[in-house]
């Protein structure tokens, strides 16, 4: 084999950069990050990560890992943690940096900032102080689920995470019963079966639904059916991973007076007249005033 002098050896071409670092004006830059697959990040998000004077993140480890995957260097910049538990303490410092002329890029742990994310208070205070706020759109678990669910997407409502206490959950779900839109909830795998049961109780077990799990990841799964069918499928087979639950819109239904009285009697057995009327009216898409009058008559008040 002929020896080739080191000086004449062909150099391996360097990996081209897929981001462009540039000077950013002072302000707050919200950027969406992948919800699973790291390749779902946008080029603009990478530009912001490479260019911002200061980086802030809901989860600093996740952001550092994402930057490492895409070859974006920190270059000595500190990543500030900003999450639900330290927002009140961290916010003044971040605001001060922007008022001093710094650009701050903020990233959620996954997905779009402010969607089930602590960035809202930071955004509101920045705007109140006249600091420019910019969004670099990208991945969102809610939109990804809606896209593949097969449920109507012309009108939808994102309801976030349900509350934890039993009474609050039932009222929370019942408040959406008559909404003429596809409903979207985020839920943990530990509570999804309970949630489906409560939705059957408050919205009606025949509502169409889709449970979208581990979106963009290796074990992505979409289960479709009625609320009752999904609830039954999880009784003896718990699932893992991050879940988006979508529920189809309320359809007009004919309800007999006997069925209405039966639902009211059951609700009055555990709720006040007002709450019982509210729950039953929402369940059947009826006017609350009419159902309240019926409930008053049945309760003898």
The CATH architecture of the largest domain comes to 3-Layer(aba) Sandwich
Largest sheet, described in full?
5 strands, parallel
- As residue ranges, the low-confidence spans are none
- What is the terminal-to-terminal distance? 103 Å
CATH class of the largest domain: Alpha Beta
Assign the CATH superfamily of the largest domain. Answer: Tetrapyrrole methylase, N-terminal domain
| Nearest-integer average pLDDT | 91
> How many structural domains in the coordinates?
3
Rg of Cα set: 25 Å
Remind me, CATH topology of the largest domain? Cobalt-precorrin-4 Transmethylase, domain 1
Helix % is 25-40%
Our estimate of the beta-strand percent is 15-25%
- H/E topology pattern: EHEHEHEHEHEHEHEEHEHHH
Could you give the order of strands across the largest sheet?
3-2-4-1-5
Function: Catalyzes the 2'-O-methylation of the ribose of cytidine 1402 (C1402) in 16S rRNA.
Catalytic activity: cytidine(1402) in 16S rRNA + S-adenosyl-L-methionine = 2'-O-methylcytidine(1402) in 16S rRNA + S-adenosyl-L-homocysteine + H(+)
Pfam family, one: TP_methylase
Subcellular location: Cytoplasm
């Amino acid at each position: 084999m002929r020896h080739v002098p080191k000086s004449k050896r062909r150099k391996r071409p360097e990996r081209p950069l897929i981001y462009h670092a540039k000077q950013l004006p002072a302000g707050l830059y919200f950027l969406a990050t992948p919800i699973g697959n790291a390749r779902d990040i946008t080029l603009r998000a990478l530009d912001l990560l490479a260019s911002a004077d200061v980086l802030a993140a809901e989860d600093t480890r996740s952001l550092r890992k994402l930057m490492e995957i895409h070859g974006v260097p920190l270059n000595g910049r500190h990543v500030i943690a900003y999450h639900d538990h330290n927002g009140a303490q961290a916010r003044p410092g971040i605001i001060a940096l922007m008022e001093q002329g710094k650009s701050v890029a903020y990233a959620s742990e996954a997905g779009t900032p402010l969607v089930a994310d602590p960035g809202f208070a930071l955004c509101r205070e920045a705007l109140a102080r006249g600091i420019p706020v910019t969004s670099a759109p990208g991945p969102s678990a809610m939109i990804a689920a809606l896209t593949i669910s097969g449920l109507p997407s012309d009108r939808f409502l994102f309801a976030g995470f349900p509350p934890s206490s039993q009474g609050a959950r039932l009222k929370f779900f019942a408040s959406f019963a008559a909404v003429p839109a596809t409903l979207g909830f985020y839920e943990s795998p530990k509570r999804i079966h309970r949630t489906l049961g409560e939705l059957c109780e408050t919205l009606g077990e025949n509502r169409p639904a889709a449970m979208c799990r581990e979106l963009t990841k290796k074990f992505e799964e979409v289960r479709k059916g009625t609320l009752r069918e999904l609830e039954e499928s999880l009784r003896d087979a718990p699932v893992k991973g991050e879940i988006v639950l979508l529920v189809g819109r309320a359809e007009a239904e004919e309800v007999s007076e006997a069925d209405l009285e039966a639902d009211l009697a059951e609700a009055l057995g555990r709720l006040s007249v007002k709450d019982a009327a509210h729950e039953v009216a929402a369940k059947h898409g009826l006017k609350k005033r009419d159902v309240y009058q019926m409930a008053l008559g049945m309760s003898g008040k």
